[in-house]
Amino acid sequence: MKKIEAIIRTNKYEDVKKALHEIDIDFFTWWDVTGQGNDTKHKTEIYRGTVRDTSYISRRSLSIVVRDINLQKTIDCLLNAARTGEVGDGKIFVTDVELSYRIRTGESGDESLYNRD
Amino acid sequence: MSKKLIFILAGIFLVMGFALGGDLFAYTTPDPAGLHAGTTADITAATAGSPTATEITDQIGKNKVAINMVWVLLTGFLVMFMQAGFAMVESGLTRAKNAAHTMSMNMMIYPIGMLGFFISGFALMFGGVGTLGLLGGYEGLNQEFALSLFGHTFGLFGTKGFFLNNVYDVGVFTLFLFQMVFMDTTATIPTGSMAERWKFSAFVVYGLVLGTIIYPLYGNWVWGGGWLATLGKEFGLGHGHVDFAGSSVVHMTGGVLALVGAIIIGPRIGKYNKDGSPNAIPGHNIPMAIIGAFILAFGWFGFNPGSTLAGTDLRISVVAVNTMIASATGAVSSMLYMWLFKTKKPDPTMMINGLLAGLVAITAPSAFVNVQAAALIGLISGVLVIEAAFFIEKVLRIDDPVGAVAVHGVNGAWGCIALGLFADGTYGDGWNGVPGTVAGLFYGNPGQFVAELIGVATNIVYVGIIGFVVFKLIDLTIGNRVKPEDELDGLDVPEMGVEGYCGIKLDKNSETPLTK
Known about the structure:
- The structure holds two protein chains of two kinds.
- Chain A is α+β, with helices and mostly antiparallel strands.
- Chain A has two helices and six strands.
- Helix content of chain A is 19%, strand content 35%.
- Chain A is elongated.
- Chain B has one domain (61-496): Orthogonal Bundle (Ammonium transporter fold), CATH 1.10.3430.10.
- The longest helix of chain B is centred in the N-terminal third of the chain and has 40 residues, at 53-92.
- Chains A and B meet through β3 and β4 of A and α12 of B.
């Protein structure tokens, strides 16, 4: 099992969600994050005559835990759906997940990651 | 009882009602256009419908006083609503973690200041103001403590009406309400410059002292018949220090207190770096601040026109238009000044400050200048407020989160000076007991200009000293400032016990830039 952490543009989220549903990846967590990027490294604004740093950018982070068989197709889907071609599209990180459980039934491992229907 | 009997009795009562009730009403045909409502029958007379000549003239006089009283009360209600405007501006321009505390200060200053004014403020300020000619003619406010020096009288404070005792008169009560809401406007100004680090208990003490002592003394000197008002009668300086609606009495007092308070309480943690350069601490709710600015601009229609103390004084139209025009030129000149010369973007917080600066600056001269002068006064105040705010923040290194000192202190002074320059002599005959209309330097009366300067200087010295003493005493006894941990956490929970935005995640410490 692998955890895919994808940091994407907020306005690409709907495209990514639709694309993921089309490949049967229906379960993931997302939250809005603030971060630093290369493009706005030195951006400043002026508030009442005083300069303040506004180099931060807003993105959305998705956390998807998938079985090993689905890993490559999920990554390809994400890369296609979240890409705009401009600087600042985001990043995808993949880490290994040791154990996984479904709380309702107690199933563990690969069985906790999909519905047997 | 049988049904028949009930119907018969009801019928008898109905007929009796029509027969007897017809005489109790003036007319029985409805009057949709109001053409017949209001006739001789409505004049209070011993025999209804046939008033004597005295009864007619009495009614006319009563109506005049009634119009004045209704006017003063309604404009007073408008000024009371400005408390909400101040609360929104100050809270919108400060941080979310302090919202409950900032709002609470602005909320409680209304009753606390009012009680102080009720206890002694009104008596000190108006105990000796003389006859309330426009509001019924009560002559009982006639006890003024004055000093006689070098053959001249210097009125210092009134001594009648503590707890509104012995002045149970409709005119006095009207005046009390109107003057009290003006005092509350002064009281709420320092809460802006000292926000985000003021201990609530220290603030409560300040509010009481302001309403009881600080505000009414200077107010008596200008409006209560005291020595600044009599500079004309005693020393021939124009009409004495003239301040129509309170650029000096209300706004300068508040602004100077805000300055002294901000100096004593010190800047917010993280506002200034070790090398003295400031950090921006943006406000958390610009929409609320702008709504607050509109509420203030609306309330100012009560502030300035109401100060005629008479709805029958038709100058109110000129006063209202002057107020409006000055606010417009103030806001636009601030916007353009920031946009074109300062930061290349029109800053909403400076637009607010510009609007308010125009209003503050026109407050004193609103009844005495023509509209072109009002526009110019507003225009200058829009630029003045920005330069003053920058000077205070960057050069003097005084932390004023909302620009209270620049808006109220600096522009309050400018308003009085503008009166001394631009008063055009079309109004104000007999002001402060001096015959003739009020005119300024540009219309041939340099004495007026000098009187204004004296009034402004007196305000700075008096309010500066008494404000310093009061704030220092509070500091030495209970302390002005909250603990640093509380300030970084947000004052809402440590001081007030409840978060302003409960349930909304705020990253409380990230927005305080720690000193480099």
